[in-house]
Amino acid sequence: MNISQYVNATDKEINNIKWKLMDSIEFNFTERECLILYKLSVFDLLTSSESKLAIMLMAQKLGNIPIPKED
Question: Distance (Å, rounded) from C-alpha 18 to C-alpha 16?
């Protein structure tokens, strides 16, 4: 079974979310992207780096860690 079938998303959507995740400084995902990201993590389909980034971005959204400032 293909990954896209597990998470009910196209391959293009999954790749876009993974690129967006690796390129994000602030949490700026749509509701659909969040759902797909959640399903990817539930089925253990993210790399460890992608998982860490997702956790950090979600923690920022909840206000638990500050957004890094550029010097």
Answer: 5
Give exposure, 33-62, as e/b (b: 16+ Cβ within 10 Å): beebbebbeeeeebeeebeebbebbbebee
Give the pLDDT confidence of 42-55 residue by residue, as tens digits: 889 999 999 999 98
Quick count: other Cβ atoms within 10 Å of Cβ 6? 14
pTM: 0.79
Q: Is 35 helix (H, G, I), strand (E, B) or coil?
A: helix
Distance CA 71, CA 56 (A): 20
Domain spans, the chain: 3-62
Question: 14: how many CB neighbours lie within 10 A of its CB?
Answer: 20
